[in-house]
């Protein structure tokens, strides 16, 4: 039904989703329904057939659905043109960006045979890493040069999106990004030297220019 496909205005005598809610929401609704279908399937595993792969797939579904990335993207669209407070913005970022990063780490821990302590540590690392990534992304959209960033800058301002620099200022945003990176690194303590690569990746976020 979407404009990029059939571009139909009616289905079964009623206006199509994109005509009522807009193309972006219609696209996300389709994504959500597909994700929910997969989620329903993996929610009912016969006794004795539970494997780490089923658990990992559930992590991916939960991070992608309306409680995760898709829901966060909807909140992000609905927030355009509105002035958000820091708590509201953080919730969007945790779902739109952080949920998938956190899930990727948890999935690795599950498939790798990690225990609950290890998986919880990876969860905490991923959540802090996701917020640090988004804060630095907001800063790059304001401070970076297009030729280095590889895309146009200032899109957040043009789209009237709330950002960390817009709410708390540039200096405080840099401080908050560093704080989240510190949280991420401290979460890796249970891994000792084995967590060194993830620690270095978190530190990189504060230096990235694209």
Structural summary, described in words:
The relative contact order is 0.09. This protein is flat. The two termini are 36 Å apart. Strand 1 and strand 2 form a beta hairpin. A two-stranded antiparallel ribbon has the order 1-2. Helix 2 (23-43) packs antiparallel against helix 3 and helix 4 packs antiparallel against helix 5 (86-111). 68% of the residues lie in helices and 2% in strands. With 210 residues, the chain is an all-alpha fold. It folds into 2 domains: 1-44; 45-204, Farnesyl Diphosphate Synthase. The longest helix is centred in the middle third of the chain and has 28 residues, at 116-143. It has 11 helices and 2 strands.
Low-confidence blocks of residues: none
The largest β sheet comes out as: 2 strands, antiparallel
Please name the CATH topology of the largest domain: Farnesyl Diphosphate Synthase
Going by CATH, the architecture of the largest domain would be: Orthogonal Bundle
- Text of the CATH class of the largest domain: Mainly Alpha
Summarize the structure in short.
This protein is 68% helix and 2% strand. It has helices at 17-21, 23-43, 52-64, 69-78, 86-111, 116-143, 146-149, 155-158, 164-168, 170-187, 196-204; strands at 10-11, 14-15.
What structural keywords apply?
210 residues; two-stranded antiparallel sheet; single chain; 68% helix; Farnesyl Diphosphate Synthase; mainly alpha; 2 domains
């Amino acid at each position: 039904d979407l404009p990029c496909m059939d571009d139909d205005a009616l289905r079964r005598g009623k206006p199509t989703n994109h005509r009522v809610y807009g193309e972006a929401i219609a696209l996300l609704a389709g994504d959500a329904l597909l994700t929910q279908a997969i989620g329903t399937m993996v929610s009912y595993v016969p006794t004795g057939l539970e494997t780490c792969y089923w658990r990992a797939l559930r992590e991916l579904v939960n991070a992608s659905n309306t409680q995760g990335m898709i829901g966060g993207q909807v909140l992000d669209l609905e927030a355009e043109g509105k002035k958000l407070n820091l708590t509201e913005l953080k919730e969007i970022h945790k779902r739109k960006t952080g949920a998938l990063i956190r899930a990727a780490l948890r999935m690795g821990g599950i498939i790798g045979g990690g225990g609950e302590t290890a998986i919880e540590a990876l969860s905490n690392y991923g959540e802090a890493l996701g917020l640090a990534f988004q804060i630095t992304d907001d800063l790059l959209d304001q401070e970076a040069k297009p030729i280095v960033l590889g895309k146009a800058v200032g899109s957040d301002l043009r789209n009237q999106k709330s950002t960390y620099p817009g709410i708390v200022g540039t200096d405080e945003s840099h401080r908050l990004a560093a704080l989240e990176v510190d949280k991420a690194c401290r979460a890796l303590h249970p891994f000792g030297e084995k967590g060194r690569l993830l620690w270095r990746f978190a530190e990189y976020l504060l230096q990235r220019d694209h």
